[in-house]
Amino acid sequence: MNKLVRFFLIIALASAVLLFTISSLNTSQGYSGGNTLTIYNWGDYIDEDLIKQFEKETGIKVIYETFDSNEAMLTKIQQGGTTYDIAVPSEYMIDKMRHENLLLPLDQTKLPNLKYIDKRFMDLSFDPGNKYSIPYFWGTVGIVYNKKMLNGKNLTSWNDLWDPELQNEILLLDGAREVMGMGLNSLGYSLNDTKQAHLIAAKEKLDTLTPNVKAIVGDEIKMLLANEEASVGLVWSGDASEIMSENEDLDYVVPKEGSNLWFDNMVIPKTAKHIEAAHKFINFMLDPKVAAQNTEYVGYSTPNKQALKYMPKEIVNDERFYPSPALTKKLEVYDNLGKKNLAYYNELFLQFKMHTK
Ligand code: N2P
Asked: Would the pLDDT of 17 be above 90?
């Protein structure tokens, strides 16, 4: 080998080593490149083993972040710092996002497992034809309470929460529509009421609950209730179902005045970079066995009809978490009330929060 050839071979080898090092550094630091998927979901809302299974099956690396309210999620997506490939908003937020042109239309030909979703969760008014969103979980809002700590007393109504005996006993989930909704429902008003006088009345009624409110909290509400730090909580149904399997003194009720029926669906934000991978993930989560495993882990109610077949009967037949269609008809789904009204709900909720401190 002459000297010149040897010289070029060494240079080529050195550059190859350098390139390899740089590229592996890139993947371990930011996964900014090709084969990744950035998911933005509610806290405690997936069995993380399923993320690993998806990565293994597809070779796609998942970056996973969580939020604890629709409003927080929207702000983050609008700011655009991180570009999410999948998010999981609730119905009124999906309606708002599609009207604000923040979502990409889905390609349903890439979602063959969509056939497993129960028709009653498809084609709802917040997203006609499921053009932008695919059902993930659904549920209600209600009261979880500790029968032992309440000496066998049953709670059945929102107004039961105002009982002076519950002083400093109530934990509330940190959601503007849920907490305002409790005030509205307790006065017999709709969860979608926009009359200023009614909203103010609801907020003033909530203010009178303050002596009974121990705290307004995020996902730690489950741990606090399971550990009996408080005897009553305003929660989403699946959080109740999860802690009821840990503490047998807990029970869950959807109050008789009425409550909220909600749907959380998977969407692809307009700014997404990995649209193919996003469809793969949605289709993966729709697989009946995957959905069943996820549902058992998370505790929420699945819209996947086929998944129910893989789940224990006592879960599927529990009317508290799989309320009959007749019962769900009596519940209200949040409407997208428009920017001004939603901002007003948030403002009143914020005032109430300051009042409880
Ligand atoms: C899970 C929260 C469920 C959200 N931690 C209800 N929309």
From this structure: no
Amino acid, res. 6 = R
Neighbours of 100 (CB within 10 A): 12
Ligand 1: lining residues by beta carbon, under 6 Å:
42-45, 90, 219, 236, 262, 264
The Cα 341–Cα 198 span in angstroms is 12
Helix (H) or strand (E) holding 175: none
Can you give the length of the chain in residues?
Answer: 357
Contact 121, 282 (CB under 8 A): no
19 CA distance to ligand 1 centroid (A)?
A: 44
Predicted pLDDT of residue 330: 87
Q: Which domains does the chain have, with CATH numbers?
A: 2-138+264-316 (3.40.190.10), 139-261+323-355 (3.40.190.10)
Distance between CA atoms of residues 316 and 314, nearest Å: 6
What's the predicted TM-score (pTM) here?
0.89
pLDDT tens, position by position, 64-101: 999 999 999 999 999 988 999 999 999 999 999 999 99
Q: What is the mean pLDDT of the chain?
A: 93
- Output the CA 151–ligand 1 centroid distance in Å: 29
pLDDT level of residue 3 (50, 70, 90 thresholds)? low
CA-219 nearest atom, ligand 1: 5
User: Beta partners for 134?
Assistant: 266
CA 192–ligand 1 middle distance (angstroms)? 20
Query: Is residue 14 scored above 90 in pLDDT?
Result: no
Of 68, 70, 236, the residue with max ligand 1 atoms within 8 A of its CB, to mutate for a pocket test, comes to 236
Q: Is the pLDDT of residue 32 over 70?
A: no
Report how far residue 294's alpha carbon sits from residue 137's, in angstroms, rounded to the nearest whole number: 10
Ligand 1 centroid vs 142 CA: distance in angstroms? 13
- Among protein residues, the one with the nearest Cα to ligand 1's atom 6 is 236
**CB neighbour list of residue 54: distance below 8 Å, 6 or more residues apart:** 60, 62, 280, 281, 284
